[in-house]
Amino acid sequence: MIRRTAINYLEQWKIRDDRRPLILRGARQVGKTTLINEFAKQYDVFLSLNLEKVADKALFETFSNVQDLTDAIYRHCRQQKKESPSLLFIDEIQNSPQAVAMLRYFYEEMGHLHVICAGSLLESLIDNHISFPVGRAEYLAIRPCSFIEFLDGINEAYDLNLVEQLEVTAVHDRVMQHFMNYILVGGMPAVIVKYAINRDIVATDNIFEILLNAYIDDVQKYARNETISRVIQYILKVGWKYAGEAISFERFGESNYKSREVGEAFRTIEKAMLLELVYPITNPQIPLLTTMSRKPKLLWLDTGLVNYYAGVRDTIFSVSDIMEAWRGKIAEHIVGQELLAGKIHVSAHRQFWVRNKPQSMAEVDFVVQYKNMALPIEVKSGHNSKLKSLHQYMDLVPHDIAVRVWTQPFSVNTVETPNGKKFKLFNIPFYYVGVLDKVLEKSNV
Description:
Blueprint: H1 6-15, E1 22-25, H2 32-39, E2 45-50, H3 54-62, H4 66-76, E3 86-91, H5 97-109, E4 113-118, H6 122-125, E5 138-141, H7 147-153, H8 157-164, H9 172-185, H10 189-198, H11 205-220, H12 226-238, H13 259-271, E6 275-278, E7 280-281, E8 297-300, H14 303-310, H15 313-318, H16 329-341, E9 352-354, E10 363-364, E11 366-370, E12 373-379, H17 388-394, E13 401-406, E14 411-416, E15 422-429, H18 436-442
Parallel strand pairs: 1-4, 1-5, 2-3, 3-4, 7-9, 12-13, 13-15
Antiparallel strand pairs: 6-8, 9-10, 11-12, 14-15
Helix pairs in contact: 3-4, 7-8, 9-14, 11-12, 12-13
């Protein structure tokens, strides 16, 4: 069992006065159902329904009164009401419009019933086919496991604690090896559990194959026509090779597909939370506003999936420094994954910076808001003077803090740009990306 950090949010949700029915959102097999089964241990009564089952679905088609429905659910699940709250989990809720409509009444009239819903196809259906009661439901994004969760999943509790306490320095090489394994395995819970048995990456191949086939089957169901269906299938077969790259829709992946078709296909896959089209900012000021006219970078759901489907695992096995693998794209991709892994909001997204000047190649890998700063994050090794794009970025912003992710131990340098601006460069090892806020807070930033 992997201890998911999202359970901390659920525990706060449980005791809130303004608690609403909670809709879990995320791609297939990111661990939504397992998370709820674990959370349910905190309740005396757990009512679990799966609306792919005819008998479970029939409850919502038979009873239109919320009190009668609730009583029927208790009987159906062979549970007795108690004075303490009960947890009701409705899985595959997309199969019943009546169940979706009933959420507002659970919220308004059944305060003792804590309701959580999930569905494997929700992302493609929300807005177009399903409309959850406005103001009477809330959302929680469930994403692949972070590095912290990976350490828990492979039973490395001691090193997990060192990372969380920012006390890794003495065992840097050991924890970096864990992170290299995380890059290979990725964050899909089923893959981690399989890997943890014998620490055998090859043993996970079958799970990766099952996942890809399931993704193709799912997403194609909501293609608008046969052409878009074919484009989706094409992207899900070759698109992994373009992870971390700025892409063009026109003739994507050396195909003959047009920009309009590819764009629609990508947006359909993005709705399923299998990828993100990450657009740049050109003005590094708060709030961070994306420039949609520029090419987006393609970041997939999980780096483990990328490694397997793009066929680059052997390349990663053979390098001593992850920065050398696949032109540094895998290193950048896993940092992007870690930056998003702990975000609970569905609307959370990533951004990078490009210089707003014709023919300029200047680019910073990621920009995140930290307090009132548009904080740049570069994924690079090497001497500080070679961080040319970062220097150009720092000349544009009022603050004096920047972050470089690398394979070496944590350090802080004072760096000066060619224009004479001095700034503090936080050099953080990959395993600290997921606790970046803690690193900065400890340094009084």
